[in-house]
What we know:
Layout: E1 2-6, H1 8-18, E2 25-30, E3 37-40, E4 43-46, H2 47-56, E5 60-65, H3 71-77, H4 82-85, E6 89-93, E7 101-104, E8 108-112, H5 118-121, E9 133-137, H6 140-154
Parallel strand pairs: 2-5, 5-6
Antiparallel strand pairs: 1-9, 2-7, 3-4, 7-8, 8-9
Amino acid sequence: xxxxxxxxxxxxxxxxxxxxxAKRFLWIVTADIKDLYVIRGKRSMPFLSVLAGLVEDGVAVxxxxxxxxxxxxxxxxxxxxxxxxxxxxxxxxxxxxxxxxVIADGRRAFVGSANLTxxxxxxxxxxxxxxxxxxxxxxxxxxxKLVEWVDSLFIGEWCAKCRLRDKxxxxxxxx
Length: 175
């Protein structure tokens, strides 16, 4: 299955279905990251609470982003100590990342234009959100290729030859 999803469909299919449906691992790649809030029941809560809940349930979560998150995200992050204390949560910064992708369990993935922000993921008011598009897929060959590529980013395979290394706050290859 390859399905084109647009605008607020991204919120429904990715944030409400794909993310909480992860059982083994969830990888998120984004250029920009802000204080995305989600609706759970009648309450609005930080998306970080969803990630913390997954980690508490034994799901390994990786977050790769291109720049430092905003102050609201950082304040929310501090409310979830499991994201700092658990080996199941890993977060890295790579200034060259422009990809936007979410992978659940190596079986399903979203790739599109939306950053991990309220405006990008369709969580903001209809008149304030971005116009976004992406594909949701469970095509094994596509997902496998994406998993391998994201993993190579995460482990720093590209760092040694990177020409932006002098601008990188924390090279992933440890050098």
